[in-house]
Amino acid sequence: MTPSLVLLLAFLIGVVCGLRSLTAPAVVAWAAHRGWIHLDRTPLHIMGSTAAVIVFILLAVVELVADQLPSMPSRTAPPGLIARIVLGALSGAAIAVSGAQFIAIGAVLGAAGGIAGAFGGYQVRTRLVKALKVPDFVIATLEDAVAIGAGIFIVARF
Known about the structure:
Elements: H1 3-19, H2 23-34, H3 50-66, H4 78-98, H5 103-132, H6 136-155
């Protein structure tokens, strides 16, 4: 795999994180555990542990359910945005290091993707709800499917 493609995937896993903050690290942990991406002998080897897979998947499921609640704060509010930046950086770093690229570059690209995904996802979701005149949960569920599918697609490239 070319370095450019690896770094693009690091950015894109960050975008997934911007859509759903815990989906990206859950998919990365699962892929590392399954041996799709290789984090052995890296500072991120813990991501492939059974404990990390279980924790991230459980948290991702909770997030998918909680996101359907109208009381959830906006993803662009500081707590949600910070989580997307940090978890995007973690996920991007894992993708980069798995593809033999610098961990720091992957972290920066993942964080940037997290920001882009958060703001872009918010705009797309709110505009679709208005344009299609459907309840928010319909578009939120579609966004869940996009985030999960895109995350799996990204880690399956290795």
